[in-house]
Specification:
With 43 residues, this protein is mostly helical. It has one domain (3-42). Helices cover 84% and strands 0% of the residues. It is built from three helices and no strands. It has helices at 3-10, 13-27, 30-42. The radius of gyration is 11 Å and the shape is elongated.
Length: 43
Amino acid sequence: MEHVELDRMLDSRKFLDRLYSFAYSRCGSSYEAEDLCSDILML
């Protein structure tokens, strides 16, 4: 994945909503989902 494409994805509200939805479905609480999203984005 190119750097420019990654920047575009991180600015996309739709992408971040899908990421949060994924994390929430795995965790079940909003705090854990936010923590998981942060961990995913930091990689």
